[in-house]
## 1
Amino acid sequence: MCRASRRPSRNSTWRRLASVERVTFRNVSTVREMACREFSRIEAIIKGILPDSEIEHVGSTALPHGITKGDLDIQVRIGAPMFDTAKAALAHEFVLDPDNVWGDSAASFKIEDAGIPTGVHLTEIGGPFDLQWRFRELLKARPELLWEYDDIKRRFEGGRMIDYRNAKAEFFGRIRHLIGARTDEPVAR
């Protein structure tokens, strides 16, 4: 007797693809100019949609040196009363990224027409995911931590993306107390 084949769920398909997706890195200097140009362009779009938001260039391309996957991360910070309205407005403009951070105080989006892969991360000011800009400042101020983070990237060069993301989450989970974040909350991958 034949068993009916079950179509894999979106999440199981993502996990299977993530388990074989490979990660590569390059020097930040090779993508900084394009990242800054795209940040300025996208910042203007977001300011037009959410004039009361705080928009931060975060991630490795926002750091003075180091290595990067070659993508751009943008954090959009908004007050709690405006969060749901802001999420709806950004969802109208950008593609939702359910495989990234989602919750009552965070939402992620992808920009598919950017010059480099770009993620927009909406966070509630003071919420549990309002961390990226603080991690950026910590890594700028503490070169030994930036070196340690880059060392993780060097170890996973050409390796599985999922393994790199797990190591990255462990690293940021371990240092989150240095930015005054609660240590009992999950860390975005």
## 2
Amino acid sequence: MRRIQKYIAPVLIICFAGCLCSCDNETGGEYRTIETVAQDRLTIAFRKGDRLRDTVTAALKVLADEGVTAQISVRWFGRDITMIEGRRSATAELGYTIEPRTFIAGLCASGPPMNVRQQDKYSGFDAELAAAVCEKLGWELKLRAVLPENAAVELAAGNIDAAWGLGGADADAFDLSPPYTDNRTVLIVPSRSGIKKTGHLNGKTLGIRNSDTYLLETGAAFISGMEKINVYFDSGALFTALNNGQCDAVLTDSLVLAYYLFVNGKT
């Protein structure tokens, strides 16, 4: 019977220094990507009929034209991972006056690089992007962390004005911004392991973040063949376990992988 073990202790980013190298899905580098388990595009979700969607989208287009979205991306990933169409006149073309207001953004992604919370302060790619939008529009920004599955309830209750960084959102339930970046859930192994396909994982140990355990229900064939699944508090602990040989393979987001490679100077 497959065993699932949880590892709770968080690991700081400093633990990764010197551990990560470039990711290559064939050969070379520290890691090999052997399967893409899921693929999605991140959007911003709004209440149905709320023109905040158009206002925020227009601001993002202006910021993209000015190079601001690319600058924020480079700070967190070392390259521009955004897919926002730039248009300098986007806000002027809205056809209505943008009034001052307080904008409450619910951050759906948890942990670096998208959302990093220290006491009552937030940083991260999504947090900085929301801050740039509000600065452009002359709005005051308030940030909250929300669970993606609670986004509809939080919006309906008026607790947030937007669910930022929502993947797989139902267009029938929300008004959605255009996607602003791609994200993939990837299965990676150390290149030195010699594992080159999922069939080689039978009887091995899989590592996964606590927030991603729903992926175990995808029915992917390689999951049923794993001897043990270790669940870790965050991506820091996940990568440390992979580097130390406690796991043979891990599931992680491509954005998380890109971030950790960048901060360790391996991109």
